Amino acid sequence: MRVGFIGTGTMGQPMLTNIIKTGHTVLAWDVVPQALEAARRLGAAPAGSAAEVARGAEITITMLPSSSHVEAAYTGPAGVLEAAPAGRLCVDMSTIEPATSQRVAAAAKARGIRFLDAPVSGAVPRAVAGTLTIMVGGDPKDLEEARPVLEAMGSTVIHVGPVGAGEVAKICNNLIAGVAMVAVSEAFRIAEGFGVDPKVLTQVISKSSGNTWAMEHGHPVPGIVPTAASSRDYAPGFMTDLMCKDLGLAVNAARQLRVPVFVASAAQELLRLASSHGLGRKDFSAVYAFLKPSSGEAPV
Ligand code: NAD
Description:
- The chain is about 50% helix and about 15% strand.
- It is α/β, with parallel strands linked by helices.
- It has 2 domains: about 1-160, NAD(P)-binding Rossmann-like Domain (Rossmann fold); about 170-290, N-(1-d-carboxylethyl)-l-norvaline Dehydrogenase, domain 2.
- The protein has a 6-stranded parallel sheet, with helices on both faces. Strands 7-8-9 form a 3-stranded mixed sheet.
- Helix 1 (about 10-20) packs across helix 8, helix 4 (about 65-75) packs parallel to helix 6 (about 100-110) and helix 12 runs antiparallel to helix 13.
- The longest helix has 29 residues, at about 165-195.
- The termini are far apart.
- Bound molecules: nicotinamide-adenine-dinucleotide (NAD).
- Nicotinamide-adenine-dinucleotide (NAD) binds near residues 6, 35, 72, 73 and 124.
C-alpha cells in the first residue's frame, strides 16, 4: 500500500520504518524540517504538506503531539480533509481527547472520508521492535482494512468500540502508568533516605505486590535497568510534558463525567511542576530526580 505518514517525530520515525520494512511505501510530512529529513533518511518520500500526503496515499496515518495539532492537521488549511479523495481511510494514532477524535471523524464523514482513532502503548523500544499495543475506535470494517499496516507497527491490535473509544482506553492506561511512576519514585527516595540499596529494593518489589511496569522497564533510578531512560540522563522515551498532557486528558474526562479523581490530578500537578523546573522534555521518569529531599535543617 501507499501509506501517508504525518508527524515523523520520536514515535513516527520507528513506526514508519516498520511500515517500510513490511513492503509498503511511505509518503511523509512533518512541519519540522529535521523531522521530515529524518523520515527521508529512513526511506520515506518527503511531501510538502499534509494535503499532499492525503492526496497521494491510500491510507493516511497521523502521529502528532496533542488534540490541537490533530485538529489543525485534519481540518486546517492544506490539511488532510481538504485533499483526501472521498472514501479514503485516515488513522490517527496520537494520544488526544476522545471528543476531538469524534469531532474530526464527523468532519471527515461529512466529506465521505473514513476515520479511526488508534493510539498506541509501548513507547520507543516497542515502536522500534514493531510490538506496540494499538487500541482502535471506529468501524470494525475500517479496522480490517487498516490491519495490515497497523500490524507492521504493533503485535496487539484491539478493537475497543466506536470512534473515541481507543483514546478512552489509552488515557485510562496512561493514568495508571503516570501515577505508578510517581509512586515508584517516591518509594525509592524513601528507601534511599534509609540507606537501602535500590538494587536490592528492586529485587524485593519485583517479587512483591508493588511490582509495576514503571519499575520493571522504566526504572526511575539511574543504573538499575540499563535500557531505562534514567540510565541515559533521562533522554526520552516518553517526555514529562506528554505524560502531563495524558494525565490532564484523564482528569478532564473525569470532570466531564463527574467521576472523582485524586491521584491522577496530584500526579499531573507534580509533573507540571517538574516541567516548569526544566524537565518537560526529559523522560517522565525524571520526576524521581525532581523529588529530592529538602535540606537536613528543614523542620519535619
Ligand atoms: P513528538 O513531538 O516527538 O512527534 C510529533 C511530531 O509531530 C513532531 O515531529 C512535530 O513536528 C509533528 N507535528 C506537529 N504538528 C504537526 C502538523 N500540523 N503537521 C505535521 N507534523 C506536525 O511526539 P511523539 O513522542 O512522537 O508522540 C506523538 C504522539 O504519540 C503523542 O500524542 C504522544 O502522547 C503519543 N505517544 C508517545 C509515546 C512515546 O513514548 N513517545 C508513546 C505512546 C504514545
